[in-house]
Design a protein that fits this description.
292 residues, mainly beta, six-stranded mixed β-sheet, five-stranded antiparallel β-sheet
Length: 292
């Protein structure tokens, strides 16, 4: 697949040791801006068969987190159609044959929201003013057909990541595979949206249609984590057909310029690339005890 966004690459030497293999990562992304419309490829290995593993970015388009080996996908809020705090990138692509027609790709929300503070030069485990990221998955078919009004609304309002964890649907569909023999069986772009408080201290609401209802979230990068899977049952009717994907991290830039966002990515992907300039914690005393 042709790389659909333009990035500058800085060659670095960084080795990550996993339980399966020693893999070298040698790309340092120096911008999160102006990616354009782009996708993440999910491969089935072996394609379309019982017990196949769902693999993320096997062509190494994106960097990997140094501590875990998990793929980090950088994206930028500010789609023209959605306004300053929305984007439908990345898209998710499954090629023909990797999923069979009618099989559905889902996401599972993991962890909690993290925030890159450009002044402190570090990732924080909470956003500074209660900001949150909302992701709008699809409504499960059985809920559309047989669900109550409340159940449909639950999915329609999307999944929310905050510093406290995940609210709303923990799992939701992305798209159903088309029964095709070539091209993309799945190619879906769903909406990410960032909510923050406005000048009156009222939290923005991405469920309100139109532009201008998201508040004024703090400038910085926001990091969420998810996993991709299918609820398709194997041919023996006893187990799930596909093995869930490894977790993938999506880094969403809100207003950082190119080099600032590059530093945020590097703090995840290139060990010791950022010096922590935050205030030191108070020293802890050490109690030494000896026997009689």
């Amino acid at each position: 697949m042709i790389n659909k966004y333009s990035i500058n690459l800085t060659i670095v030497s960084c080795l990550f040791l996993s339980t399966a293999a020693l893999k070298s990562y040698a790309q340092g992304i120096t911008t999160c801006n102006a990616f354009g419309h782009f996708d993440v490829i999910i491969d089935g290995d072996p394609a379309g068969t019982d017990g196949a593993s769902l693999l993320i970015d096997e062509i190494d388009q994106f960097p990997a987190e140094a501590s875990t080996g998990r793929t980090v996908v950088p994206a930028d809020f500010g789609d023209f159609a959605g306004g300053p705090h929305k984007t439908d990138d990345p898209g998710w692509v499954v090629k023909a044959g990797d999923f069979l027609g009618g099989e559905v790709l889902w996401f599972r929300a993991l962890g909690s929201l993290r925030f890159w503070d450009k002044d402190e030069q570090r990732w924080l485990d909470d956003s500074p003013n209660g900001e949150r990221v909302r992701y709008f998955g699809a409504i499960p078919p059985d809920v559309v057909i047989n669900g109550t009004t409340e159940e449909n609304a639950f999915y329609a309002e999307g999944t929310i990541w905050s510093g406290a964890g995940v609210e709303g649907p923990l799992e939701a569909p992305i798209e159903q595979a088309a029964g095709v023999t070539s091209g993309d069986a799945i190619h879906a772009h769903l909406d990410f949206c960032l909510e923050g408080k406005n000048a009156e201290g009222v939290m923005g609401d991405c469920t309100v249609p139109g532009i201008g209802h998201t508040g004024s979230p703090t400038v910085g990068a926001y990091l969420i984590e998810m996993q991709l899977f299918s609820d398709t049952v194997a041919s023996n009717s006893e187990q799930q057909k596909y093995i869930d994907s490894p977790p993938v991290k999506v880094l969403l830039n809100n207003g950082l310029v190119a080099d600032e966002c590059g530093v945020a990515i590097g703090a995840l992907t290139v060990p010791n690339s950022v010096i922590d300039r935050s205030a030191a914690l108070p020293a802890a005393g050490i109690l030494i005890m000896s026997g009689p």
